[in-house]
Description:
Chain A is an alpha+beta fold. Chain A contains two helices and seven strands; from the N terminus they run H-E-E-H-E-E-E-E-E. Chain A has one domain (2-108): Ubiquitin-like (UB roll) (Roll). The relative contact order of chain A is 0.18. By secondary structure, chain B is of the alpha/beta class. In chain B, helix 4 (161-173) runs parallel beside helix 5 and helix 7 (302-319) runs antiparallel to helix 8. The longest helix of chain B is centred in the last third of the chain and has 18 residues, at 302-319. The site of FE2/S2 (inorganic) cluster has 12 residues of chain A, from loops. Flavin-adenine dinucleotide is lined by residues 9-15, 32-35, 40-42, 45, 49-51, 86-87, 115-118, 137, 140, 161-162, 165-166, 255, 258, 294-296, 300-303, 305 of chain B.
Amino acid sequence: xxxxxxxxxxxxxxxxxxxxxxxxxxxxxxxxxxxxxxxxxxxxxxxxxxxxxxxxxxxxxxxxxxxxxxxxxxxxxxxxxxxxxxxxxxxxxxxxxxxxxxxxxxxxxxxxxxxxx
Amino acid sequence: xxxxxxxxxxxxxxxxxxxxxxxxxxxxxxxxxxxxxxxxxxxxxxxxxxxxxxxxxxxxxxxxxxxxxxxxxxxxxxxxxxxxxxxxxxxxxxxxxxxxxxxxxxxxxxxxxxxxxxxxxxxxxxxxxxxxxxxxxxxxxxxxxxxxxxxxxxxxxxxxxxxxxxxxxxxxxxxxxxxxxxxxxxxxxxxxxxxxxxxxxxxxxxxxxxxxxxxxxxxxxxxxxxxxxxxxxxxxxxxxxxxxxxxxxxxxxxxxxxxxxxxxxxxxxxxxxxxxxxxxxxxxxxxxxxxxxxxxxxxxxxxxxxxxxxxxxxxxxxxxxxxxxxxxxxxxxxxxxxxxxxxxxxxxxxxxxxxxxxxxxxxxxx
Lengths: 117, 366
Ligand SMILES: Cc1cc2nc3c(=O)[nH]c(=O)nc-3n(C[C@H](O)[C@H](O)[C@H](O)COP(=O)(O)OP(=O)(O)OC[C@H]3O[C@@H](n4cnc5c(N)ncnc54)[C@H](O)[C@@H]3O)c2cc1C
Ligand code: FES
């Protein structure tokens, strides 16, 4: 019976993409931030970037390549590669890996080249 | 146009150390950092650093960043920090253009220090653009800064120190690292890091590389292949490993773009990681009053980035007419310290690279 509970616990930890237990770092519960992704309401945490919040929710595709429309995801996380360009609050080509998530943000996948507004 | 005395681009150990000295000398410093956080590579590093005691060895990376920042915090009235501010252009008359939250602004300074660090190299193989394939540094950022796991099952490509350390950190965070692949016959990084992984049962497969990634909208598996002594693939040695995370750690290359844009004379030196500025012994580029320090002048370590930053802080403070107490002694100490850091077998590549830099062929600005 004990083993069964340990198994369920292990499954719970493994299934979660947010880190809760870490030998060196502390990840305390943080304030919840509401935003939308492609029109759907979503929840992130204070301290997230847009890309880290989407990743934690399981959305790995952040953009599409311009010519072949291939799926592109998080790659460098420091604003170098452009693989995470998205439309944020109706502005194109925002590097979501270095942009902090804010309450009420409207995040969308970009189709083709971004529009200059 | 906004006028400033000294502008520092990048808040890694090099930029922070330069700022520390300049502020102590009495100069006004404006620092621009594109990330929302200060500290460059250091902030995501949870391991204890190697190197000499003077450069905070045995201290965890993020604690080194805190210490360096504490040194400059005391000078708030002389120090201006711009976060989430990317320098997107630079001109030879020491003008920069900064992009911050939809707004572009121009600044001019009497001296500019470029400390933009490095970026991770890519590796080419079919489907290398699938989501779920990341630079090792990105995985470190995701886990250690944002507390998010990259996936459940991972393979690391590259067994240098970064590849080994990030693999270990993935295991610490709860990711199952199935293997570390290394194309060369030997493990690239320090033995201690490799042993820590081996103790956790992670195989380090030498003379093995990625043949291709498999998946449609995200990575589902990789096919590995063995290499012979001449780095040629050996037929019928393919193995498929199902994974959702592939980390690429095949070296860093200096972020030379701003230097190239300013028109500084650049050289391609493979030992230093790529395109680096040709500099005087005072670390001044071919453009007067534009200086560079840290990984952007050649891939090294935080320890040398700290000393280089201090050294340039001294040079620039003197150039601007500040007389810092103990200037000559401090300068001498920096030079000696850099010499010590670069001696020994691990400094050989840097020494060779620096020799080549003095006489090497120039590289095109791309
Ligand atoms: C996993 C790992 C482990 C390591 N372990 C060790 C170790 O044990 N010991 C050791 O001594 N070293 C270690 N290092 C190396 C060390 O972290 C680097 O050598 C050091 O951080 C380089 O410092 P830097 O200041 O030159 O650059 P960075 O730390 O890279 O900082 C550059 C900064 O510039 C900013 N920037 C870049 N372009 C722009 C722009 N256009 N506008 C505004 N800002 C910009 C970046 O966002 C960044 O914050 C390790 C590195 C890694 C990745
Ligand atoms: S992931 Fe590379 S710029 Fe954002």
